[in-house]
Amino acid sequence: MAKILVIDDEAPILNLMGKSCRMQGHQVSEVLTGRDGIIALDADTPDLMIVDLKLGDMDGLDVIRYGNEHHPSVQVIMVTGNGTIESAVEAMRLGAFDYLTKPFELADLQKTVELALQARRGASAAGMTGFQPSTIAQPAVAMIGDSPKVREIQKIIEKIANSNSPVLLEGEFGSGKQMVARSLHNASSRANGPFKVLQCSALPEDLLEAELFGSPGSKAETLFARAAGGTVLLEEIHVLPMRLQSKLEAFLEEVASRRAMGELPAKMDFRFVASSAKPLQDCVESGSFREDLYYKISVIPIEVPPLRSRPEDICLLAEHFLKRHAERTSTSVPEIDKYAKRLLESYNWPGNVGELQNAMERACAFAEGGRIRPIDLPPKVAQKVEITDEDEKTTHHLPIGVGLSDFVRKQEKLFIRETLKYNGGSREKTASMLGVSIATLYRKMGLKLEKDKMMSN
Predict the structure, then answer these.
(1) Packing angle between helix 205-213 and helix 242-260, nearest 10 degrees?
(2) What are phi and psi of 272, to 5 degrees?
(3) For the CA atoms of the chain, what is the radius of gyration?
(4) Partners of 51 in the β-ladder
(5) Is the same domain home to 97 and 28?
(6) Is residue 375 part of a domain?
(7) Residues 313, 300: one domain?
(8) Are the C-beta atoms of 72 and 91 separated by less than 8 Å?
(9) Residue 28, H or E segment
């Protein structure tokens, strides 16, 4: 559950957006004016702010500017019935996650809300607190973990920190690619410069083009110009439209040529980093990504491993999130008991680092006596129990919350499959060994048996 502040001067729309967010399980505050919005921001800093561009008493962009200056960790979605490319780009420049034009579908709002909250959690996991002016040094951020894979990435970062070569980060959603990019930036001589992030899937094509390359008649600086002296991270570059891929390839080629000739303008002096949740080589082979751009941005490729492949880092990350939560809420840091740690380390974490952070926030809400126990973890994390068979000297993991018939059926299929392997795939031998008819064997395997075989049994 997240805290969301909605600001809109039209009461019916305000109530509708608030109701939509509550349906997603979030805690929502609704205000009708920009001034009340600023008061609400100061009184109880939310996780996300949804603000109308045109408010009765002030410009929504001014509210975003105030939030960016005083509450940089707050994620922002702007909505308006008077949308223009210029206002959208300005909102993005001020740190807005996305931009919705009225009228919009509630499903689109709900999807954008979840994506914005996911992005906020990812930034938090990376140690980011939102946009900071380039004149202020960023705090050092390093990857959290002591697994061999994390140590390998840390060594790569040390070697390439001060290189200008493009870096491509590949890995599953939520695996920590932004954290790696931030670590690379902070380890480099560009650490005091800006660190600009743009999610390619967050904007429609025209706004994405304007943000990257400018728009006719607009004097607004592009993302690359605003990142001068620092680092640019393009997230989810695999979804970049083919037309913009061509423009990006040409632009990066110009940057590389000017740098090689020693004629690079200050506004083009940035380190380029891209990330992708899909292997770009596969996208090249399928024709959805330009081969020339792929080779240009993958000079230094880094594979960011999923959380499940480095279980030794899970508890370190969990404790990091608990400390951050305690700092944010001015509470003591709870302890994770050994049984809860065992469950954390054995869970598969399909949502990777972001899912772990959510689990820790939930655990803090349910924990009692300064201790996190298995019951405080999300059901899907705590849904199995480890037991030891003293006779066989083996350990088994059994699911909790699964119906007995479902469990027995799955175990039956597993046992039949292993017996089939033992008998070289012979179903007749397997049926005989298990003491069942061939028809029963087929039924339990979920297969159809030819009528003549059925008759013979």
Answers:
(1) 10
(2) -100, 125
(3) 27
(4) 7, 78
(5) yes
(6) yes
(7) no
(8) no
(9) strand 27-31
| CATH code for the domain in which residue 297 is found | 3.40.50.300
Cβ–Cβ under 8 Å, residues 121 and 358: yes
DSSP annotation of 368: B
What's the rounded Cα separation, in Å, for the pair 67 and 73? Answer: 9
Look up the pTM and report it. Answer: 0.61
CA atoms of 125 and 118, how far apart (whole Å): 10
- As a residue count, the chain comes to 457
Alpha-carbon distance values, 241 to 181, 235, 278, 390 (Å): 23, 13, 15, 59
In terms of domains, do 293 and 314 share one? no
Instruction: Classify residue 401 by its DSSP letter.
Output: S
Q: What residues have CB less than 8 Å from 315, skipping those under 6 apart? A: 336, 341, 344, 345
The phi and psi torsions of 402 (rounded to 5 degrees) equal -100, 140
Residues 317, 382 share a domain: yes
**CATH assignment at residue 431:** 1.10.10
CA–centroid distance for 166 within its chain: 22
Residue 60 in domain: yes
| CA dist., res. 298 & res. 269, Å (int) | 18
> Domain of 101: which CATH number?
3.40.50.2300
Quick one: tokens of 307? 């959380």
Same domain, 44 and 118: yes
Residue 255: domain span: 159-304
Q: Is 236 helix (H, G, I), strand (E, B) or coil?
A: coil
Q: Per residue in 221-243, pLDDT tens? A: 888 998 999 999 999 999 999 99
Q: What is the pLDDT of residues 144-183, one digit of tens each?
A: 888 999 999 999 999 999 999 999 999 998 888 988 999 9
Total domain count, the chain? 4
Q: What angle do CA 131, 137, 140 make, to 5 degrees?
A: 90
Tens of pLDDT, residue by residue over 319-338, are: 999 998 888 778 899 999 98
Q: Confirm whether 16 is domain-assigned.
A: yes
> What is residue 175's three-state secondary structure?
coil
Joined tokens for residue 90: 């300005």
Residues 167 and 195 in one domain: yes
Is residue 128 in some structural domain? Answer: no
**CA separation for the pair 62, 211 (Å, rounded):** 20
Helix 106-125 to helix 352-366 angle (10° resolution) is 90
Amino acid in position 426 = S
